[in-house]
Amino acid sequence: MGIPRLEICLDKIQHNATALAERLSSRGIRTTAVTKAVCGDPAIAAALVSSGIDLLADSRLANIARMRQAKVQAEYVLLRTLASEADAVVELADVSLNSELTVIGALSSAAMARGKHHKVILMVELGDLREGLLPAELFNAAAAVLQMPHIELHGIGTNLACFSGVRPDRDKMMQLSRLATAIEHRFNIKLAVVSGGNSANYDWLMGASDTGRINNLRIGEALLLGCETLQRRPIPGLYSDAFHFVTEVIEVKTKPSKPYGDICQDSFGAVKRFEDRGRMRRAILAGGRQDVAVDGLIAPHQIAIIGASSDHIICDASQTSLNPGQTISFGVTYRALLAAMNSPYVAKTLVKGK
Ligand SMILES: *Cc1c(COP(=O)(O)O)cnc(C)c1O
Questions:
Q1: Which residues line ligand 1 (CB under 6 A)?
Q2: For residue range 13-59, what is the model confidence (pLDDT) as tens digits?
Q3: CB atoms < 10 A from the CB of 276, how many?
Q4: To the nearest whole number, what is the mean pLDDT of the chain?
Q5: Which of 28, 104, 133, 350 is deepest in the core (most CB within 10 A)?
Q6: Residues with Cβ < 8 Å from 136, sequence gap 6 or more?
Q7: Best substitution site from 198, 201, 338 to test ligand 1's pocket, by max atoms within 8 Å of Cβ?
């Protein structure tokens, strides 16, 4: 029971995974569960797999290695592929997302050297301006990939609403569908996977009368935090509280609300201005920027976070009576989850129940 700790409810994650995979499957779409926000945590990965998901994706090979080491049985998809890691990619991942022929060439050599076959999904740029081949480059790239030994052109995919927040709407999904069909006709092949996007595709999915050729989505945040990601609205029937950041009160005192003295930079180089709201009961919690993205914490009703340094979270506790030694439980957004999972100072504790 460390402080601070991230409490993880596997039952809620499993419920979310079962419910969401069922909704996707009823529209002919397979779920790839994305584990990068939880650093490939094996217990969480196992919970996802036990809810019937058999495709796990992560952006980091270290996380895939961790899940494999823990004997979590799934097909593994690498979301971000580096040429310098080609050997490890073909060793650890069954499938990888790619947008550069030189990188796929390195995968081909690595796969050949190991007598393995590696599946490649070509990513297509449809407006979000992160990874992907421009649609005009896709055909030449597909032709080149089809020539590469030990590489299988497994499918195409796109990623929207990640870097620029571009909505994966009907138009974008039709565009990807048309590209899939065009490639199949041109090269007389069948693409196993047309991967339409991520948690941001939830609205499109639920509203679509025709999902076209899309038969796969890669879902992280919606499974873990129970929300879609265009507006962060909760998804009906899913839990948005599978994770809690728990910490302890270390000081409670009534102090002025406005700092006094000559104001210069704080510990992170910012010069802050505070309004004078008179005297205020203030609480200090054990936790800070070394533990979590403090601005991504969801505070309980009577508490408002004022700010944080490396190891201290400062709160306005005027609406509640807190005592040193008391624990406080916060909800987390994606940002806070990601940071807490990555902090060695935050204990990860499994809790039961729904
Ligand atoms: C992170 C990531 C996802 C999952 O995104 P969520 O918003 O967590 O659903 C899907 N695809 C790619 C390529 C990613 O990098």
A1: 34, 36, 59, 79, 97, 159, 198-199, 218-222, 229
A2: 999 999 999 999 999 999 999 999 999 999 999 999 999 999 999 99
A3: 10
A4: 97
A5: 104
A6: none
A7: 198
